[in-house]
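To: structure subgroup
Subject: Chain for Friday's discussion

All,

I'm putting the inputs and outputs inline so they're searchable in the archive.
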Amino acid sequence: MRSLSFLTLFLFSFAICFADKDYHYYINLNKVLDDKLTIELTPPDISENEAMFNFPAMVPGTYEVYNFGRFVNGVKAFGKNGANITVTKVSDDTYKFSPANQLAKITYEVEDSWDTKIKEKIVFEPAGSNIEDTKNFVFNTHCFFGYFKGMTDRNFILEFDKPKGFYPSTGLSNIKTGETKDVISVFDYHDLVDSPIMYCMPDTTVIQVANTKVLVAVYSPNKIITSAFAAAKLQRLLDAQKDYLNGKLPVDKYAFLFYFTDKGTLSNSSGALEHSYSSMYVLPEMDTLSISQTINDVCAHEFFHIVTPLNIHAEEIGNFDFNNPVMSEHLWMYEGLTEYAAHHAQVKAHLIGYDYFFQVMMEKYNNSLTEYNDTVPFTYMSKNVLTPHYHKQYNNVYEKGAVISMCLDIILRYYSNGTYGTQDLMRDLAKKYGKNVSFKDKDLFDDIEKLTVPEARKFLNDYVAGAKPLPMVEVFKLVGLDLIKKRETETITLGGFGIGYSEETKRLTVTDVLSVDDFGKQFKYKVGDELYSFNNRLLTIENAQEVVTDFISKSKVGDKLVVEVYRKDKRGNFKLKSLKGKVKKVKIMEENVIDIIKEPTDKEVTARRAWLGIE
């Protein structure tokens, strides 16, 4: 990357008529009009008479064609020495300029996708743009900055005028910050799109994880969640992931960018988008206890993308076409293996228990069977994921894709006597390829077989490239576990009613009584009841899990239980009411239960202990 002094960069935006090979963008964050920002571009030298200027139709990680040019309007062009430039809109994402070799400056407006009047194909917020005047700006850079066809391999220099005190949180390193002006330089358009920037008054914490400096930046409108809290949660998680990756991370700097919202989102969802050196999060602003496991699970997934696809990817990703995207066959690895590793690393580091890990993985397996088409080969779905029919199957990468990866991990552990698993496989594939070398889709299974065993190749052929249902019983047998399809059992429950939360009163609420079991029927719960105490223990969202766990684990049949609830009377006023009953076990039907085989072989036990990190 070319290193430029701050003074040199500062002068770029004022030298409108100068010519060079770089893109020079200027953005004034102090001038917001109707949730829009005006973008100015001094373009690189163009020798052709006509040039196509593109905004991305799609970017890596989204698996959705959004046509980001829809949010751009008012495109104008200015010629050198007053030359007249014709601007022709070719499509939502493409503009033609002629004569392009006379271009001196381009300006256009960009609308905020988080708060837009464009309701067709809502952009998932972590991939979109936020413009909150004087408060917060989320720059997913593909929403704001375009490129000329055939000219993505140029420097992109971004100059920002900003409100005093604002700070640009990003995974980028080439940044010059000032009191009211920043300049950020990026090597090429692929790196630019790979690098979100969040501007706001800073709440940041930096932690060290092995060889990597990790920036944690938080915007929480009501100051409920701080970067210090998020960083403390992440420290243990990232230390576990560091150990999972053999003690070293493949990046020197990484940034977690958190936007916590106190409102709903247009997409009615929350989550994150991964990048090579950062990840962008849009999550609900809730109390710290409630958000803790969400931070762990979501961040663990996104952070593991530093392995794949950053260091292991097909040509379709390495040479990504922003306007005519072509998909790779291997979403099972990019997303599925990443999702599996996010949970597997936590159980191996004892951040979560074995039972919880099994529960998560079996929920994914059940979801893959009930919510998706289990007869479609995963490689075929992946290759065709942008078509309307197969796009409906995309979220199965986080369900069946993770279970596929778990099965492959178990197979590798068994046939290596516990010495080799998917975390080792990812390390070896990353060594073979790396960030700048792409594999061919058709070669990946061959490469995996060369690094592992023929049984792994057969599994991938039959159950990833093929349409056979996953052999769950046989796979779990390899680690001395039994998968029981259905089992009736008696257990102590909470009562079977649905639980929600009232933002107004800050109490847990009864939302559904249709599935109340024989134990719960004693209490005659009503929808709208607000839970106050549980055997004289005040019940809050912060201690609910502890209270319920203690009750289920420590109660005995016949013990008394008193639940106090606030219930509205006929006038709509809340009154405290005591509901009483005695503990009793109820029969439930469990599906896909994992249990330990009574007499496993030594090889099966060795594989299980290595798989789960049991010392």
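Points worth raising on Friday:
Confidence is low (pLDDT under 50) at residues 1-19.
The longest helix spans residues 227-244.

D.
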